[in-house]
Request: fold
Amino acid sequence: MSTSIARHAIKEVTIIGGGLMGSGIAQVTATAGMKVNLVDMNEDILKKSGSSIQKSLERVAKKKFSDNPEGGKQFIDDITGRISFSCNPEEAVQSSGLVIEAIVENLEVKQKLFSALDKVAPKETLFTSNTSSIPIKDIAVSTQRLDRFGGLHFFNPVPMMKLLEVIRIPETTDETFNSLLEYGAAVGKTTVNCKDTPGFIVNRLLVPYMAEAVRMLERGDASAKDIDIAMKLGAGYPMGPFELADYVGLDTMKFILEGWSKNYPDVEIFKQSEMMNKLVAEGRLGRKSGKGFYDY
Ligand code: CAA
Ligand code: NAD
Reply:
């Protein structure tokens, strides 16, 4: 199948999970002209998803339509008009060419969701996960469509970050993979091809770096603030490791390290962080809960 045919196949996308990532993925997908069904557990969460998309689009429109506020309003209305909200994933997938899962970083919960969706989604619908750390194959085996399964790993904040990691498992067909690359190009991202290895490309390097920064803090080598300043001014990173961990979400960071330390107990750099676990237990999840390593 030619890639242009593949792109036409994806006119509607169902995104499951309307948190930090799912809202951003919904925004860029609708901006690219596709219809979006955004699914989460309840109406209150979906209301928050809708308002975070609205706020993010206002930031985009302020720049893009700086001398034409009416045009900016129309731009936002057109995009939000393509997004529907739902608490019923089985119903939402009925006419979608692509499903992107962005729910909590937990294998059993993801498997349960995909197993249910596999029974009701059209046969040709492609299934993908935005997981940060779980092997795509481990999620895909909960379905009968390993050939139409892959990973689409976006970066936070989705509207700003230009990269999309596209992951294939051995069973992913070229047709499926090309459709995922086409989708990535359609939403304006630069894609890189990844195998199903732990953390793919970016997180394999980034997560151990952030975990080591926490270990530096635990050892008393330097303060969080000084480590952040050092990495911004000395290494050119836009955020220091503690700012970034708070931005990603300490619960997500904890789930990643928990999974890796269980699956790869001999890999030193995948070790869990006691300090991070303690912060999560105290409800300090980072920016999304108003406090993490820092207070917001
Ligand atoms: N939506 C729309 N526009 C946004 C935005 C958003 N969510 N966030 C930032 N912007 C735009 C706005 O235009 C903003 O200007 P206004 O404030 O006037 O609206 C402009 O970007 C600049 O933003 P800021 O002044 O807030 O700050 P900044 O210049 O530092 O940029 C940043 C923000 C892009 C987030 C930058 O700090 C950055 O790149 N940080 C690192 C992010 C990163 O590394 N992400 C990867 C995390 S790892 C991951 O995602 C994978 C995983 O699996 C865990
Ligand atoms: P989040 O906590 O902000 O959002 C997750 C959302 O999923 C919540 O709104 C929750 O209510 C919903 N949810 C949980 N279980 C559900 C279910 N069974 N059905 C429907 N909705 C459900 O998390 P996030 O940061 O958006 O992360 C989502 C996924 O994306 C995770 O797999 C994470 O590893 C990955 N990811 C996160 C980042 C990041 O920087 N935060 C970056 C890339 C990938």
